[in-house]
Amino acid sequence: KRRQHQPIPSPPGLPIIGNLHQLGELPHQSLWRLSKEYGPVMLLKLGKVPTIILSSSETAKQALRDHDLLCCSRPSLAGGRELSYNNRDISFSPYNEYWKELRKLCTQELFSAKNIHSTQPIKDEEVKKLIGSIAESASQKTPVKLNEKCLALTVSIVCRIAFGVSFEGTVLSNDGFNKLIREAFEMLGSFSASDFIPYIGWIIDWFTGLQGRTEKSARDLDAFYEQVINLHKEEKEVGSEDFVDLLLKLEKEEAVVGNDKFTRNNIKAILMDILLAGIETSAGTLTWVMAELARNPRVMRKVQSEIRNKFGKTELIRSEDIDQLHYMKMVIKETWRLHPPAPLLLPREVMTEFEINGYKMQPKTQIHVNVWAIGRDPNTWKDPEEFLPERFLDSNIDTKGQSFELLPFGAGRRMCPAMYMGTAMVEFGLANMLYHFDWKLPEGIAAEDIDVEEAPGLTVNKKNELLLVPVKYLGHHETSE
Ligand code: HEM
To answer: pLDDT digit string (tens) for 100-115?
Structure first.
């Protein structure tokens, strides 16, 4: 109340562009540094758009829990609009009936526990394929590019589960596909001038090439969706319909979702969501876990001991056994604390005025929650720069959107609807990679040489390749620490 009429702390900006120039290549890091000076509620002017950055668990809780319903819309941004057929997906849709119905449909048909369970044979097959391909490198004693392997795993699983097609059968080569997804993320993570600077912003985007790159990215992705849809046009046996068939049925019936007649573009927008939201987030997590384990040999030994001692000799750690791997789950949480795949979540837009810490949030203001900064907040975490999974021992902090210290999936109405699907994929892949192989550093590389540099984008992945040499585990028990 006392601060009600005080202005929100705000770094000084420049005419026209405001604070845009202060975002840098990795906005979550720049904003974290600024928040140390300006506090956990900070106002930036991105061109003409007022943007609030929240950088503490307490302020995140006020926005995402206490006032969730007042700020659960999304701003309409150029990159998102272009790639999502004018915000017809779940992620970029404003808060409306269309979004509610679509999210419900996907939750029931794709992200449900039943579906996660019934698609286990696909995951088993894909993880076995991954283990087989790593075993080849192990026999030749050559390093494995972990980023690529992890991405190949999540691409295969998500494409088969959600699209009903094996990705190998599509137009894109492995490499082309990875580049396409990466490019799309970079476009979505860029702060486009046309969103923030009226009248002339598009000229800047045109000069920087952002506009052309975004349009190309959208065209390439469109060709991929066309192919997925065409592969579904053949007659199906009754009962073998998958998620894409269900969407095609809605198109054929000219169903109305919210107020929108369901067309081919709606289908493509949903495919875009799954493709972009599902693949890199999970692959990125797996890569970061492996990088942190390589940097922290003590933790690597301990987590491998847990898995191997629990299951003895086996061909595949089964997904239903994962719940016994308490330490591995702590390792994943610790990775998400330091490397949340979407460090600023997705932007929210205020619909109705409310207050955070006594500061007024005005309608149309954008809100970003800097979960990357929250994970490093010394008021919340002891020795925040240390990779220490044991900090979660006897702690009830989880990732389900109730613990505002740890928000890899966000919280509130816009929280990731596929948290269980994503977590299951990560845990299952990781347990098997750690069980079947010891992971050595390449010749001449020390643990401290493994870097944690980040690549820019809406999801933030490891910038440099992670190269490790796998050594096949032959099934003798390790002793635990
Ligand atoms: C480790 C894996 C994953 C992580 C860390 C993750 C994280 C996130 C985050 C942070 C958000 C934004 C939440 C917010 O703005 O508050 C989100 C939204 C979303 N995610 Fe995930 N995600 C993962 C896996 C998946 C998968 C596998 C899918 C689908 C196959 C998926 C689909 C979505 C969708 C559709 C949204 C938009 C929700 C909305 O705006 O209503 N995610 N995810």
So the answer is: 999 999 999 899 988 8
Nearest to 277 by CA among 457, 418, 88: 418
> Got the DSSP string for 144-175?
EEHHHHHHHHHHHHHIIIIISS-GGGSSS-HH
Is the CB of 282 within 6 Å of ligand 1? yes
Ligand 1 close to Cβ of residue 401 (< 6 A): no
Establish whether residue 371 lines the binding site of ligand 1, counting it when its CB lies within 6 angstroms of any ligand atom.
Answer: no
Q: Is 91 in the pocket of ligand 1 (CB under 6 A)?
A: yes
Residues of the chain with pLDDT under 70: 1-5, 166-175, 189, 234-240, 476-481
Give strand pairing partners of 437. 472
- Residue found under tokens 């494995």: 144
Q: Are strands 454-455 and 461-462 parallel, antiparallel or unpaired?
A: antiparallel
Amino acid 170: pLDDT: 54
Distance between CA atoms of residues 112 and 106, nearest Å: 8
280 CB-near residues (< 8 Å, 6+ apart): 151, 154, 181, 182, 185, 341, 459, 461
Residue with tokens 């929108």: 260
Q: In whole angstroms, what is the distance from residue 398 CA to residue 118 CA?
A: 25
Complex ipTM > 0.95 = yes
In Å, what is the CA distance from 170 to each residue of 144, 150, 165? 25, 19, 8
Rounded Cα distance, 340 and 148, in Å? 19
**Ligand 1: distance of its center to the CA of 284 in Å?**
13
How far, in Å, is the centroid of ligand 1 from the Cα of 469? 31
Q: Give the pLDDT of residue 167.
A: 61
Ligand 1 atom 10, closest CA: 409
**Would you say the CB of residue 344 lies under 6 angstroms from ligand 1?**
no
Instruction: Tell me whether residue 396 is exposed, middle or buried, using C-beta atoms within 10 angstroms of its C-beta: 0 to 12, 13 to 18, 19 or more.
Output: exposed
Residue 478: per-residue pLDDT: 45
Give 286-335 pLDDT, tens digit per residue: 999 999 999 999 999 999 999 999 988 888 998 889 999 999 999 999 99
Q: Kindly state the helix (H) or strand (E) to which residue 202 belongs, with its residue range.
A: helix 201-208
**DSSP readout, 206-260?**
HHHTHHHHHHHHHHHHHHHHHHHHHHT-S---TT---HHHHHHHHHHTT-EETTE
Round to whole Å and give the CA distance between 350 and 159.
34
Nearest alpha-carbon partner for 163 in 231, 104, 209: 231
Alpha helices in 50-112 (DSSP H): 57-61, 78-83, 97-109
Q: What is the pLDDT of residue 269?
A: 94
331 lines ligand 1 (CB under 6 A): no
